[in-house]
Design goal:
Order of helices and strands: HHHHHHHHHHHHHEEHHHHEE
Largest sheet: 2 strands, antiparallel
Helix content: 55-70%
Number of helices: 17
Shape: flat
Strand content: under 5%
Structural class: mainly alpha
Strand order of the largest sheet: 1-4
Length: 461
């Protein structure tokens, strides 16, 4: 059976032997330039394909948002429509600056971040206002302006709908072009892969000990006392070495200043710039610090900030896994909406945050149950000691300050103090939680209501 080599027909190589080179150009230089052009064209086709595939679902969402806006405008009364135009005019300067920055980035060839639906809608509103101004109608009525706005919005919706078949046609052309310029990766696959990880046999650290040797004039003479001293010194040095090993294994998760700053960055673009300017943030320790702080923030109820710290911690992990040259590719993938890289990363963020959230709920519940069951009881060193309880008198002007503190106590504890026995006080304390009991005893100390001749022992039950 003859072998079919047709799949190699469109394989694009930079160093074909039959390539014609101009006599005045060195063959090696020509092949390198050809290779560079092939790679640039290949990357350009891939980028165009990714952008067009992302554009179609984005336009559909944008059309939905525009139709919702159109329906709201259509229902507006004359007064409501006037307020809407006033709100639009107040945002004109801000929208103009944003559009100018976006257009300047395109002219300079700089990469601009992916626009959100809100930003796209604001841009549409800005263009609607510009087109309304260009109409230059005299004595315009509100109803006429409203009709013009709806007409302009309909025109933009039609343009977006017409864009989909154009994008699909362009996608098919790019795929066809890619099939005509195959690379080795397109026609081959990985046969097998093998990874070898070398581990310690026992997984323990080798501890070094020092032995002190004393040179003597008569080496044949045994010196028992010196020998014992050597053994003691070796044992002491071994203990010191063990202490040093234990100290080195302890890693503090206290937040470093750069970890605090990196954890609070909202924008992915600014995150990228921070990593470029502060390479030291790329470490497992920094990632663990930020993730631990996310746990603390979740316990404090700061959910949005906790989720942001989870994202920043995972950014460090992903970039470190992709290697020193993988950061541009990582940020390019996660900033494209609905792309596989974007979905994988943010699904991981949601998974990690959900785990932290569930764990915090369990801990908070345990703390609440512990606070409900904890109580404080008082007892003295000697059961025969007499407890002295002082209750301020309402008729005594000198007790006015103490009476104010006394009235801040719970009613049942006021009655227990009036009863004047330690059992009554403990019975009242058993009705409240530990923190509440501590607050009551603190007020008793401020007012001098509870005094025992000997030391009072506070027990937590």
């Amino acid at each position: 059976m003859p072998i079919d080599y047709s799949k190699w027909n469109n394989l694009e190589l930079s160093d074909d032997s039959d390539v014609e080179v101009h006599p005045n150009i060195e063959r090696g230089t020509f092949i390198r330039l050809r290779q560079q052009k092939i790679r640039q064209d290949r990357d350009s086709r891939k980028q165009q394909l990714v952008a067009l595939e992302a554009e179609i679902p984005m336009n559909k969402k944008l059309i939905t948002r525009i139709n919702e806006l159109r329906a709201q405008i259509d229902k507006d009364t004359t007064l409501e429509f006037g307020k809407r135009l006033l709100e639009w005019s107040q945002k004109t300067k801000e929208q103009e600056n944003f559009i100018n920055d976006f257009q300047q980035a395109i002219k300079d060839g700089r990469e601009f971040r992916q626009l959100t639906l809100d930003e796209m809608l604001d841009g549409l509103i800005y263009r609607v206002q510009q087109e309304i101004v260009e109409l230059k109608r005299d004595n315009k009525q509100s109803s006429d302006i409203k009709a013009d706005v709806l007409k302009i919005i309909d025109k933009h919706v039609t343009n977006l709908k017409n864009r989909e078949p154009e994008a699909l046609k362009k996608i098919e052309e790019i795929k066809k072009e890619m099939r005509l310029h195959l690379s080795v990766d397109d026609v081959s696959k990985e046969g097998f892969s093998k990874s070898i990880i070398t581990k310690d046999v026992d997984g323990k650290k080798i501890q070094k000990t020092k032995t002190k040797t004393i040179e003597v004039l008569n080496p044949g003479v045994t010196m028992k006392d010196i020998s014992k001293e050597n053994i003691k010194e070796s044992e002491q040095e071994l203990k010191e070495d063990e202490i040093l090993v234990n100290d080195d294994d302890v890693d503090s998760l206290d937040m470093d200043p750069d970890s605090k700053e990196f954890g609070k960055i909202q924008s992915l673009e600014k995150t990228r710039e921070y990593i470029i300017n502060n390479v030291s943030i790329m470490s497992r320790k920094k990632s663990d610090q930020i993730m631990a702080h996310a746990f603390e923030l979740q316990m404090e109820g700061k959910e949005e900030l906790a989720k942001l710290h989870v994202r920043q911690s995972l950014v460090i992990n992903y970039v470190m896994q992709m290697g020193p040259n993988g950061m541009p590719a990582f940020f390019n993938k996660i900033t494209i909406p609905n792309s596989p890289g974007n979905a994988m990363f943010f699904n991981d963020v949601e998974k990690q945050y959900k785990h932290i959230s569930e764990r915090c709920k369990i801990l908070i519940k345990e703390q609440q149950e512990s606070a409900e069951t904890e109580s404080i009881q008082l007892q003295t060193d000697d059961p025969n000691n007499v407890i002295r309880i002082y209750v301020p008198s309402e008729s005594n002007p000198e007790d006015a300050d103490k009476l104010a503190i006394f009235k801040q106590l719970p009613t049942h504890f006021q009655d227990a103090l009036k009863a004047g026995t330690l059992d009554a006080v403990n019975e009242s304390l058993a009705k409240v939680t530990g923190p509440e009991a501590e607050d009551i005893l603190a007020k008793c100390g401020s007012g001098g209501f509870l005094i025992v001749d000997e030391e009072i022992i506070v027990e937590n039950e």
